[in-house]
């Protein structure tokens, strides 16, 4: 069945350096996906994920036609490949969110579609957790995940992370703000909206809500600290290591709590901006991104601007939000992304991927190391 006869949205993984995740050949630099005819759909999700090809099915997936030609380029960086496991999501339901996580098991994709109108501000949606273990896409778990968010927003803010070879963590604007997901069951960990989660070990993690930080000790989530008793803080991102927990928030606010301290302390000298994302190489080298698209760095004890994810001379000739939506990195590389661009920072070297066609957007970046990185791209066109 041709995808166009059903009507679908494409969810695509673009992969750096992956050799066992069902990827097409490496394409010419600057034209990833441009010569991909005949490779898309090599591992169709119809049978591998156990999903129906009927677009009317909740979260139904179909195998797209092989002639789909993604309209974007990925810098001038050889080694990037397009996953053959492209997922085609039926248009009959609203695509709510797409999120990624990767570990030794492979790469996980959480895809959620609205399937039934809820009551009040809630929407009932079905989330499918799909795993590519290097051989094929397979359905890892399916979960009913009511969404609670402002109806004026197009999509809820939802993220995915996890413990290495352990439970996944789905968090965000959900009826349960943080869901611990395993193949056989799911448990609600925090019953309020969670904006970000940082996992630092097999049984240790931190989560941040609008103004509070929670800690997971291996058995339960407990409130660790409140950032601002006056509720003027709107925290959006958290990063943690064994040495430090850092929180990024609105109105020029970034908080640090060293391992030896009991409370979070507001940092001075932070450049102006509403901070949405955060990533650190270590406690002395931390990156943050703002709602205006600026990227700043904490190094040698001070914060300095490092540039913009979408400069005024951007190659995307259209209006769109330039928020730095998220960051992910390894020891020597940091990736930051907005709806239309993914920026790779390594020392002073910067490379950019752009997704400029209307209806196409990047939704997440995760990886298993500096040489194996996954970018999720949704094409609603």
Give an overview in words.
There is one protein chain. This protein has 381 residues and is an all-beta fold. 2% of the residues lie in helices and 49% in strands. The protein has 2 helices and 32 strands. It has helices at 3-6, 45-48; strands spanning 8-16, 61-62, 73-74, 80-82, 87-90, 95-103, 106-117, 122-132, 137-144, 147-148, 158-162, 168-172, 178-181, 186-190, 196-201, 204-208, 212-216, 221-226, 235-240, 244-249, 254-258, 265-266, 275-282, 285-290, 294-299, 302-308, 326-329, 334-337, 341-346, 349-354, 360-369, 372-379. The strands form 7 sheets. Strands 1, 2, 4, 5, 31 and 32 form a 6-stranded antiparallel beta sheet that branches. A 5-stranded antiparallel beta sheet has the order 3-30-29-28-27, with no helix packed on it. Strand 25 and strand 26 (302-308) form a beta hairpin. The radius of gyration is 20 Å and the shape is globular. The two termini are 19 Å apart. Residues 1-8, 22-73 and 116-122 have low confidence and may be disordered.
């Amino acid at each position: 069945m041709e995808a166009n006869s059903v009507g679908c949205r494409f969810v695509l993984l673009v992969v750096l350096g992956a050799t066992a995740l069902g990827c097409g050949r490496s394409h010419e630099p600057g034209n990833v996906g441009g010569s991909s005819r005949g490779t898309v759909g090599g591992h169709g999700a119809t049978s591998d994920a156990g999903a129906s090809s009927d677009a009317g099915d909740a979260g139904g997936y179909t195998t797209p036609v092989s002639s789909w030609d993604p309209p974007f380029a990925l810098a001038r960086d050889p080694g990037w490949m397009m996953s053959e496991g492209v997922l085609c999501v039926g248009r009959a339901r609203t695509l709510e969110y797409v999120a990624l996580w990767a570990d030794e098991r492979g790469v996980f994709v959480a895809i959620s579609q609205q399937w039934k109108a809820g009551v009040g501000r809630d929407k009932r949606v079905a989330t499918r957790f799909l795993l590519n273990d290097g051989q094929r896409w397979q359905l890892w778990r399916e979960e009913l995940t009511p969404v609670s968010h402002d109806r004026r927003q197009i999509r809820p803010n939802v993220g995915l992370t996890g413990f290495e070879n352990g439970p996944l963590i789905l968090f965000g604007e959900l009826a349960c703000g943080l869901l611990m997901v395993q193949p056989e069951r799911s448990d609600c960990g925090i019953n309020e909206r969670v904006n970000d989660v940082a996992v630092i070990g097999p049984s240790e993690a931190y989560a941040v809500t609008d103004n509070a930080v929670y800690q997971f000790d291996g058995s339960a989530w407990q409130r660790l600290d409140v950032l601002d008793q006056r509720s003027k803080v709107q925290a959006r991102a958290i990063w943690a290591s064994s040495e430090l927990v850092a929180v990024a928030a609105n109105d020029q606010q970034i908080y640090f709590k060293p391992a030896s301290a009991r409370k979070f302390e507001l940092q001075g000298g932070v450049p102006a901006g509403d901070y949405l994302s955060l990533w650190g190489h270590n406690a002395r080298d931390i990156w943050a991104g703002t709602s205006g698209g600026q990227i700043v760095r904490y190094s040698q004890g001070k914060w300095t601007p490092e540039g913009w994810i979408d400069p005024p001379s951007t190659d995307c000739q259209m209006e769109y939000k330039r928020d730095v939506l998220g960051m992910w990195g390894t020891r020597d590389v940091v990736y930051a992304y907005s709806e239309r661009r993914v920026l790779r920072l390594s020392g002073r070297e910067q490379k950019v991927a752009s997704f400029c066609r209307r209806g196409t957007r990047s939704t997440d970046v995760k990886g298993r190391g500096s040489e194996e990185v996954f970018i999720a791209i949704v094409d609603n066109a």
